[in-house]
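Tokens as discussed.
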């Protein structure tokens, strides 16, 4: 992205996710990886973004809950042999009886090698997901929207997925809350188990406290100070449990401490082009602390 196309510092509505991802500012996901692993890993992920099945499913649930009118423009499912899209393609190719021809292995090859690529071309840029998985994610989204507190949080939002550009000591930062209302930054997360203990482990595993702290810093930079970081967790498999949480002040403060340590190191890495990995010296290796506690308890 050239300097002339960079978003100006401030609050921006209706910025596509693709443009947000292209922005060179330090965002929450990159910062979380830098804190959890190293600057080298964070920089690699920033310059070589990946899309996992879990990320696709999370994006679809976000769309279903927060921007349902956008679903058809973002997602498509491969049609079944009796679907209107399949029948229309067959008619375009002069096949009048696709149902009978489908049973022929030659036609199955025709589907794989000819029709399916044609359909994929028509949906270029959209997320691909099977019909069964899409129905499962619809059920997860419905669970969020029928959960009283989760729905109340969403209805309070005055902005959905704004892009916010800020800075700290000259370092360009970016954030994209799932939702925002005065004083509150909202995140919607899909998860296997939404039990509170599992959500706490997810916060630690993915350094959500670091990305939350960064969103707070960026929002404060544009005059939208955050008092609370709210989370909605929804299970992506039946029975689609939902829990809502506020990240406590200690966790946010820990994330801010991590960022204060990270910012000057990231700025230096940008200036030098050197993004260090793990420590270069040899470390001692031992058992994790939880195993030593087990050993002590067994020997007591």
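Sequence:
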């Amino acid at each position: 992205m050239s300097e002339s196309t960079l978003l100006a510092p401030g609050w921006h509505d209706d910025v596509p996710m693709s443009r947000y991802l292209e922005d060179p500012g330090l965002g929450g996901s990159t910062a979380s990886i830098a804190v959890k692993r190293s600057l080298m890993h964070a920089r690699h992920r920033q310059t070589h973004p990946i899309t996992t099945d879990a990320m696709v499913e999370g994006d679809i649930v976000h769309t279903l809950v927060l921007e349902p009118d956008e679903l058809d423009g973002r997602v498509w499912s491969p049609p079944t042999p009796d679907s209107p899209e399949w029948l229309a393609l067959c008619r375009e190719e002069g096949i009048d009886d696709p149902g009978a021809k489908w049973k022929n292995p030659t036609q199955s090859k025709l589907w794989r090698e000819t029709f399916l690529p044609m359909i994929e071309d028509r949906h270029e840029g959209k997320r691909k997901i099977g019909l069964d998985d899409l129905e499962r994610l619809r059920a997860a989204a419905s669970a969020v929207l029928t959960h009283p507190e989760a729905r109340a949080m969403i209805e309070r939002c005055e902005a959905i997925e704004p892009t916010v550009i800020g800075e700290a000591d000259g370092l360009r930062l970016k954030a994209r809350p799932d939702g925002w209302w005065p004083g509150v930054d909202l995140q919607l997360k899909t998860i296997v188990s939404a039990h509170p203990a599992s959500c706490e482990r997810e916060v630690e595993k993915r350094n959500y406290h670091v990305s939350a702290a960064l969103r707070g810093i960026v929002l404060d930079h544009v005059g939208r100070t955050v008092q609370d970081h709210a989370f909605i967790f929804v299970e992506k498999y039946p029975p689609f449990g939902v829990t809502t949480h506020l990240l406590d002040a200690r966790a946010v403060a820990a994330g801010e401490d991590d960022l204060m340590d990270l910012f000057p190191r990231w700025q230096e890495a940008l200036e030098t082009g050197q993004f260090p990995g793990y420590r270069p010296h040899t470390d001692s290796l031992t058992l994790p602390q939880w195993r030593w506690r087990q050993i002590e308890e067994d020997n007591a």
